[in-house]
Design brief:
The protein is built from seven helices and seven strands. It is of the alpha/beta class. It has a seven-stranded mixed beta sheet, with helices on both faces. Helix 1 (17-30) runs parallel beside helix 2, helix 4 packs parallel to helix 5 (124-137) and helix 5 (124-137) packs across helix 6 (152-164).
């Protein structure tokens, strides 16, 4: 894949076909008006989301935000370029900064999102920060989707959510958004038991703020 300056970019960071199918189905079923992704990279997920926005309504009312501090450097603008070439740029705003600073800025600006896709840094502290702040910019009933959940860092952050944020984020079954063969369903069940599920999703069900004296549950 070629970036804005002609730089050749390896495509190993493209979202998988199954991820794209799940995102597409979430957009079709949930019809979120405002969406956010952390980790634009080559833009496969952004293309899926902005394309769905165009099918669902006009830009402005429907908008996708993408956070990626490396979009102009490592990725040579590939994600933005692919969205531009598809004629979908009016449906996307890119923030070329780290999510640790972009998300608090969104809180200050009063932005909120119905669907958030987290696929940025996989370091525990970064995933935790992404989840923590994303929970604060999600509309009630909104959906948070996390990729690479079999990664030890991501899995640990999810463990914190399950034990200490269950009052605000409730894990949901993604099977309604997945079209699997019988064999794939069996493989998925085995992977889930082994803790190797790649995609996991959480529904916003309440205020993310905990009481000051809330206990820390082991995770």
């Amino acid at each position: 894949m070629t970036g804005r300056t002609g730089k050749r970019i390896e495509t190993h960071s493209l979202s998988t076909r199954r991820n794209i199918e799940v995102i597409s189905e979430i957009m079709r079923v949930e019809k979120p008006a405002k969406t956010l992704e952390i980790g634009l990279a080559l833009g496969a997920s952004a293309l899926t989301i902005t394309s769905a926005h165009r099918n669902l309504g006009p830009a402005g009312i429907r908008m996708h935000y993408a956070i990626d501090p490396f979009q102009d450097t490592v990725w040579d603008g590939c994600g933005e370029l692919n969205v531009d070439l598809a004629g979908l740029s009016e449906y996307m705003k890119t923030l070329n900064k780290f999510s640790a600073s972009a998300l608090p800025q969104m809180i200050d600006e009063g932005l909120s999102f119905d669907f958030i896709y987290i696929d940025g840094s996989h370091l525990f502290e970064d995933v935790f920060v992404d989840i923590y702040f994303s929970a604060r910019v999600m509309t009630k009933g909104g959906l948070m989707l996390l990729d690479d959940c079999s990664d030890a860092h991501v899995r640990k952050a999810i463990g914190f959510v399950q034990k200490n944020m269950a009052h605000t984020l409730q894990e949901i079954d993604l099977s309604p958004f997945q079209h699997r063969s019988r064999l794939d369903k069996i493989k998925h069940k085995i992977a889930k038991k082994l803790g190797r599920t790649q995609l996991r999703a959480f529904r916003s069900i309440g205020d993310p703020v905990r009481p000051w004296n809330a206990p820390l549950k082991p995770f």
